[in-house]
Amino acid sequence: MEAQNITQAPKFLLLGLSDDPDLQRPLFGMFLFMYTVTVWGNLLIILIVSSNRQLHTPMYFFLSNLSLADIGFTSTTIPKMLHDIYTNQKTISYVECLIQLTLLNFFGCMDNLLITAMAYDRFVAICHPLHYSVIMNPRLCGLLLLASFCISFLYCQLHYFIVSQFVFCRDVEISSFFCDPPLLLNLACSDTSSYSILAYCIGAIFGGVPALWILFSYTQIVSSVLRVSSSVGKYKAFSTCGSHLSVVCLFYGTGFGVYFSSLVISSDKSGAVASVMYILVTPMLNPFIYSLRNKDIKRALKKLLSRITYM
Q1: Per the confidence metrics, is the pTM higher than 0.85?
Q2: What are φ and ψ of residue 112, in 5° steps?
Q3: Alpha-carbon span 225 to 129, nearest angstrom
Q4: How far apart are CA 258 and CA 264, in angstroms?
Q5: Which helix or strand (DSSP H or E) is residue 303 part of?
Q6: What's the CA dihedral at 39, 145, 258, 175 to 10 degrees?
Q7: What is the pLDDT of residues 29-38, one digit of tens each?
Q8: Residues paired with residue 13 on neighbouring β-strands, in sequence order
Q9: CA 180/CA 163 separation, integer angstroms
């Protein structure tokens, strides 16, 4: 294949999940349903938190922002995939590809940092309960949200800079439904060894440091809970972390699955299927995890539904 600057070949071909014509309608219906559930589920969480004063706490402040980031994270790729399936036009321009991967990295990093902030909130609530209201004050919560935004912006700009330096070949085919940076790294015709090392170092720093902090937080939480003599007290302490711990396992489990599949599987559609779990399934399940395992959310939802029925 002839190497050339991408501005002379401004189209990528997104191969998607399947080329089978008989599967296009079922795939479209399934992903449209999942995307609708994701958007409305996360919007419902935001509405419940904002409409109930009892939920105006640091934990639910971060939860509502996590739901907002999940909507942005999913909306970066899924509407484009639905459009491609419906129209059978699977091309994406170079500029659109850069915008997509930039937004995907931004919202993905926001998810990661907000989950980390929620872990810190649980750490303070259980390990330092007497000082919780002093430590987790509105100013600190706002600073944590602002820091998450700024760090996410820096992260996505670094990935934008790396990918924008690549030189691609003619007729580039991406074996996924979106512009995945690891796949673009493998598809570049120019030497990307130095950029590859830089990209993985950036990923290790921006992803590893929050993961280590979450691990440290839960180590301290478990240590504090085990020192509680009452079994009822232990249950209450663990129940406050149950929903968040489920989201952490789901987020990092699917994230590491996609990461390792991109290393092992560079051109197979199996990597795209693994990406669906990370990009769509995880944001879709988050509202259910918090609503089904959280009594405060259930109570607030019942109040909201009762208001709607009496209107």
Answers
A1: yes
A2: -60, -45
A3: 12
A4: 10
A5: helix 295-310
A6: 60
A7: 999 999 999 9
A8: 91, 173
A9: 10
